[in-house]
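pls design
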């Protein structure tokens, strides 16, 4: 199996390489791709050094799977070229997510929809993935009507420039800024750019992507996305109105039995999800599970996940693993 990682030197790309090694993904040749200025540099994989190559060189090698994490511009230009030579592209950018001809996949939920004909597969937004992981089993059991979500998102979701900004501000160093305001000791209700309706792109991703993943437009989602000064892990406060009533112990059981979810929910012992503990892990953590006492059939919960792992790299690798296991590549 010839695998390419496009964007290998980025925050998500480096974790993808680490995960391919950790999960012992079947690889005969690993192709590492980055920008022209990185070509010729070396990265390590399984104690061997691999030279970074260009997109053109990688395309000529016709990899079986190419995992893209290099931004929408690169994906729009290059993903179709790879698909044309028979490569299956798993794309981590927003380029193809809402394209009706492309699947938007969270393996635990809808990998079974994939076929050999799917040559460009979209990886959802990081905050969407952890949200739908918790919503999907509950929707199946109780049927959602409306979801209200507020996110508390790590600076790592913006990229290395934002992580540097936070670290510099903590040290009192003035340098290049990723955000229009300081992030240290602050909270910015501004993730991605604003659209004409007053919502940010991040908020609209949260509203639209779950409907596509669950193949269901009978429920609605409204979101407020906030950037906070944490380095790893996104958190979400979620309020879900269902058409059918629920028992809280049953909700916990359903979530507990869902692969990829860890329930941390015991107020007596101060047990609840936090980004400091989700950091570096692949599961989605759910806690603060309680009934909304102001409205019938409505649930509150708190969802936390490592945005660079399950929110990006792990989900993409899991898609690749499914493709290999089902002989779809």
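designed seq:
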């Amino acid at each position: 199996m010839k695998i390419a990682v496009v964007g290998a030197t980025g925050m998500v790309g480096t974790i993808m390489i680490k995960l391919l090694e950790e999960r012992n993904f079947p690889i005969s040749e690993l192709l590492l791709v980055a920008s022209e200025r990185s070509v010729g540099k070396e990265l390590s994989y399984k104690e061997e050094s691999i030279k970074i190559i260009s997109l053109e060189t990688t395309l000529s090698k016709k990899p079986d799977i190419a995992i893209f994490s290099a931004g929408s511009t690169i994906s729009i230009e290059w993903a179709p070229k790879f698909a044309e030579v028979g490569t299956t592209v798993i794309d981590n950018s927003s380029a193809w997510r809402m394209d009706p001809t492309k699947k938007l996949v969270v393996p635990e939920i809808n990998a079974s929809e994939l076929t050999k004909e799917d040559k460009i597969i979209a990886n959802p937004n990081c905050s969407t993935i952890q949200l739908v992981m918790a919503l999907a089993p509950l929707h199946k059991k109780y049927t959602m009507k409306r979801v209200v979500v507020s996110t508390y998102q790590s600076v790592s979701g913006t990229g290395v420039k934002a992580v540097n900004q936070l670290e510099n501000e903590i040290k009192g160093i003035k340098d290049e800024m990723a955000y229009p305001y300081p992030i240290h000791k602050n909270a910015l209700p501004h993730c991605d750019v604003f659209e004409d309706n007053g919502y940010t792109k991040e908020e609209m991703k949260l509203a639209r992507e779950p409907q596509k993943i669950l193949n269901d437009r009978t429920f609605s989602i409204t979101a407020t996305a906030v950037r906070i000064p944490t380095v790893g892990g996104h958190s979400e406060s979620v309020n879900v109105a269902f058409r059918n009533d629920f028992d809280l112990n049953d909700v916990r059981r359903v979530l507990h039995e869902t692969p990829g979810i860890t329930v941390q929910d015991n107020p007596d012992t101060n047990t609840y999800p936090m980004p400091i503990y989700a950091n570096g892990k692949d599961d989605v953590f759910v806690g603060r599970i309680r009934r909304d006492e102001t409205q019938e059939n409505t649930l509150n919960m708190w969802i936390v996940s490592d945005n660079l792992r399950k929110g990006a790299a792990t989900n993409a690798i899991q898609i690749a693993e499914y493709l290999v296991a089902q002989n779809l590549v």
